């Protein structure tokens, strides 16, 4: 069975949505983070796909305890994503694996379905973001060097990953471009997040 992995952090104020803290404070940034995470989990529940959460660190006192969780492994985001995807391919007996973030309110169950359909004929599939990154990567095979020399949190994340994919002779498909939630400008596109900012 195909597997969906969610990369997430424990919802600790000051450690999530850090780029928003200067504008809205640590507590509201955490509220935004939790809203996005809960939305992502609802998308997966609707899709009825097999999923697991990959956390940056243990979080025994949160609601994560009732969900299938793994710990991320690696020194940077590329190593952590490679490790998760490689482990996922083993666990799913070679069936495709999708890895998503927890902060994309444009994500729909249809994106997951389209990604899996794409992976019938492609090695990789991406859900690109307007900021130059990606909200989802799916694969049916993966090599460590797919993330070599990628400058994380930059506007060239996707383009650099695609350069590596070309060098590795991976066939790649791209879904529609979406928005993830990193900045105050991103928040302005979603009424529910504007309400969080406006609340006392």
Distance between the termini: 45 Å
Name of the CATH architecture: Alpha-Beta Complex
Share of helix among residues? 25-40%
Q: Trace the largest sheet across and list its strands.
A: 3-2-1-4-6-5-7
What is the CATH C level class, in words?
Alpha Beta
Shape: globular
Query: Which ranges are low-confidence, i.e. pLDDT below 50, for 5 or more consecutive residues?
Result: none
Give the H and E element order. EHHEEHEHEEHEHH
Q: Could you tell me the CATH topology label.
A: Spore Coat Polysaccharide Biosynthesis Protein SpsA, Chain A
Radius of gyration: 16 Å
Largest sheet descriptor = 7 strands, mixed
- Under CATH, the homologous superfamily reads Spore Coat Polysaccharide Biosynthesis Protein SpsA, Chain A
In short:
This protein is an alpha/beta fold and 200 residues long. It is built from seven helices and seven strands; from the N terminus they run βααββαβαββαβαα. Helix 1 packs across helix 2 and helix 2 (26-47) packs across helix 4.
Explain the overall architecture:
Strand 5 and strand 6 form a beta hairpin. This protein has one domain: Spore Coat Polysaccharide Biosynthesis Protein SpsA, Chain A (Alpha-Beta Complex), CATH 3.90.550. The protein has a seven-stranded mixed β-sheet with strand order 3-2-1-4-6-5-7, sandwiched between helices. It is globular and about 50 Å long. The chain has 200 residues and is α/β, with parallel strands linked by helices. Helix 1 packs across helix 2 and helix 2 crosses helix 4.
